[in-house]
Design goal:
Length: 491
């Protein structure tokens, strides 16, 4: 077990887009730093976010255009003004929307300012960034300018010579689109620079950043376009099977994610190089990492592409042990958490336990099947992470409104008939548990209902938009939470 995860800690789950601020979504500006201050003052030492990648139009951070690139909508424009690369008077009406590229035009203007007046050390920093990230950045920047040129169409709908990455076509495109390519690289430089500055500030204030790695990548991504051999695709680049999960707690028809499956035989032959490069990017950005859908490293659900839901499919084995051994050989023992929810077999548990990875315990799952339920706190061991709920769950208050009185009475009795509201008692139960790490979604600290949930699995509309405002956070809520963090020795 990694030392970081071998200490009692409290954390808050809040994605960057959910931060307050004047724009259409949260970003890496002053409110991110204010949130670190709030965590520090409350004795909280972990801030968990969702993946930071560049999303498609639906905004899901689990379906991104790159496994490496950061989301430019998170860039703090005010920070570019402070550096002198952008004038305060610059404005763009299109930047007020929720498009995945809503800040790109202002960042492009900042790039022109950078070219005109950047200091020598900033030029050196940008040049070094491009050199160090070239293994993914060169393909990503070309992918993005081509995607923009072809009206955001997926790469499999591009002209054949570009779809197939014919060397001459790529050379011509790099030459013809060189200005746009450099602008995309600058955009990524700004994102990584601002993120690493925030990480340094958080670490200085005893706050660790906890990131999330989606196990699969989007088909419409620079990763698949540039590295087709790593995925189960036919000779034309099309998928015959897609990823998802069969029916479970979250969805009666399962979840058909539509991601391509890995060609594990090829990846293993290459020493899992693509995965190791991906981990390298994440380890730079975060102090703790969660592997989303960890069970897919033991076996993953393959759905034929002609199936409209995830109900019909099959489990296909994956070399998770070999991959995790390769990661440890490359990076040493790093703080990894296994998202082990859903249909978990003895083989998945054995894989998790053989690497001493903490799994996840969700209190909303704990009270529906009697005293043997593994999510009940009396079954926990220290090496786990407990949540009242995750980004895929309803808020705790919202969930409690959906269960009947007998179920509520069972929870009250289990928790010792607390003289506080049940949603507060569940938060307290998470912090009081033996789990080394207890994570509370910000919505539960704010005592918010279902209308404030982040995501409804199996749906594509209306998700990922939730934000909080500072005036929602009362001094009473802050005081009670801070007291509990200290009471249960999580400072």
């Amino acid at each position: 077990m990694n030392d970081i995860l071998n200490k009692r800690r409290a954390g808050i789950l809040l994605h960057i887009t959910s931060l307050p601020g004047s724009g259409s979504q949260g970003d890496l500006g002053k409110d991110a730093y204010n949130f670190v201050n709030f965590l520090h003052d409350s004795g909280v030492t972990v801030w968990q976010t969702l993946p930071l990648g560049m999303t498609h139009a639906n905004g899901s951070p689990y379906q991104c255009l790159s496994a490496h690139a950061g989301n430019p909508t998170l860039i703090d424009i005010e920070g570019l003004v402070n550096l002198g690369w952008l004038q305060l008077s610059e404005h763009c009406d299109s930047c007020q929307g929720l498009s995945a590229f809503n800040k790109s035009c202002l960042v492009e203007k900042a790039y022109q300012g950078f070219l005109a007046c950047a200091a020598h050390h900033d030029w050196d920093d940008f040049t070094l960034f491009c050199q160090e990230k070239a293994f993914w950045l060169d393909d990503f920047a070309l992918f993005m300018v081509l995607r923009n040129e072809y009206n955001q169409k997926c790469w499999n709908q591009w002209p054949e010579n570009l779809k197939e990455r014919e060397p001459k076509a790529l050379r011509d495109a790099r030459h013809r689109l060189s200005s746009g390519i450099e602008s995309i690289k600058f955009e990524q430089y700004v994102f990584f620079r601002q993120w690493m500055e925030l990480k340094a500030y958080a670490n200085k204030h005893d706050v660790l950043l906890f990131g999330d790695i989606p196990i699969f990548v989007s088909y419409d991504s620079s990763d698949v376009w540039a590295n087709r051999e790593n995925f189960k695709l036919d000779d034309t680049g099309e998928m015959s099977v897609v990823a998802g999960v069969p029916p479970d707690y979250f969805s009666a028809t399962g979840q058909r994610w539509g991601n391509p499956h890995y060609d594990w035989k090829y990846l293993k032959k290459t020493g899992f190089n693509w995965w190791l490069e991906r981990m390298d990017t994440q380890i730079e950005q975060f102090d703790i990492l969660r592997i989303d859908h960890f069970r897919g490293l033991e076996a993953a659900w393959e759905i034929p592409t002609n199936e409209p839901t995830a109900q019909n499919g099959q489990w296909t084995k994956a070399p998770g042990k070999s991959l995790l051994n390769a990661i440890i050989t490359q990076f040493g023992t790093i703080p990894l958490v296994a998202e082990d929810l859903g249909i978990i077999t003895d083989e998945v548990e054995a894989l998790r336990d053989s690497f001493k990875l903490p799994g996840m315990k969700i209190l909303q799952f704990a009270f529906g099947s009697g005293p043997d339920n593994p999510y009940l706190p009396d079954h926990y061991e220290r090496n786990c992470v407990v949540y009242t709920g995750t980004h895929d769950n309803d808020t705790t208050l919202g969930w409690l409104r959906t269960i009947n009185e007998d179920e509520k009475n069972y929870i009250y009795n289990y928790l010792g008939n607390p003289a506080i509201p049940l949603h507060c008692a569940l938060l307290q139960a998470a912090l009081a548990s033996v789990a080394n790490l207890a994570i509370i979604p910000m919505q539960d600290i704010l005592e918010l209902g279902s209308e404030h949930r982040m995501n409804i699995p199996g749906t594509t509309e209306g998700n990922w938009n939730w934000r909080f405002q500072w005036n929602q956070l009362s001094s009473e809520q802050v005081g009670r939470f801070t007291y509990l963090v200290g009471l249960f020795n999580r400072k």
